[in-house]
């Protein structure tokens, strides 16, 4: 078992991964989201030692999702924000015509 006490993402790669996400507490919300493929994570272990670790792939996606929870960001917030960005792109495209 691993413990990440007070985790903080201190760097995110620009390379993004698009994949399905959901939340067990709000089963209705499921969608694809962009997440950084690689993150640098700072946290403390059970002995209070500060650690910095590079995490990639699916583990990086999971940690970003869980750190969102710790920051008060819910999957429903991400869906709203992602949909708004999609609509903004569509509106910007219409303006170019």
TrEMBL record:
Keywords: Hydrolase, Metal-binding. This is Peptide deformylase. It holds the Pfam family Pep_deformylase. It comes from the Bacteria. GO terms for molecular function: metal ion binding; peptide deformylase activity. Coiled coil: none annotated. Belongs to the polypeptide deformylase family.
